[in-house]
Amino acid sequence: MPWSKRSCGPWPELVATYKTRAIVLGRHNLGEADRIVAIFTLEHGKLRVVAKGVRKALSRQAGHIEPFSEVELMLAEGRNLDIITSARLAWYPGELTADYAQLQLAFTFVRMVERLTDDNHAAANVYKLLSYGLHWLNDHGASPTLELFFKLRLLGDLGYRPKLDECAVCGGRLDGIYASPEHGGMVCGEHHVGGESELSANQLGLWRRLQAEGLEASAPGDDALALATTVICDTFYQYVFGRSFTQVS
Known about the structure:
Layout lengths: L2 E4 L6 E18 L3 E8 L3 E7 L18 E7 L5 E10 L8 H17 L7 H17 L3 H14 L20 E3 L4 E3 L9 E2 L2 H12 L9 H20 L8
Parallel strand pairs: 4-6
Antiparallel strand pairs: 1-2, 2-3, 2-5, 3-4, 5-6, 7-8, 7-9
Helix pairs in contact: 1-2, 2-3, 3-5, 4-5
């Protein structure tokens, strides 16, 4: 890890610095000119860092630390929070700011990652999913299929991948398809006890394709299937994490 010098009385203090690539999740003001920035990094997971002087008119960092952007950062270790010493914008989703639906879904993505991950806990798959989701959203626009894809994949990356290929209770064939967050996936008609949401074969097929193959496997008509079942996916989040991330139209 590189070192830099920080003035501290007559003797300089050595400060550890490091580089990282990050996605900006959000930020809020600190004091008169600084900001605390929430970022998600490939190597270190979620971090909260300080951008000093970034709200000043002549700040060189201001345009490089925007929500949803990917940035190359140099950070210096601080006593409480690490400090951004340089920032270079690597990618910015410029199409999002002009479309309310895209902006709303982008906020949903970063809010889920910020609230469901731990600080300083590396999660490379979550970083890659968030980056992929924001790029797809910027290039293709918002859609129910994209929202469902992100939510299904994030469940898996957080360790709660729903079982979709067989009954989560008996391991048998799904003759009747019911979503059971309690059992971590789909259950068959025999183990349907009431209260679970029922899916059609086509709806389950979409879940399976999105979970296994991704958005490249999407097809015409998938948005209607996704729109009808994303709320069912949300029940898994409610059961596991005690919170829902349902889109508000």
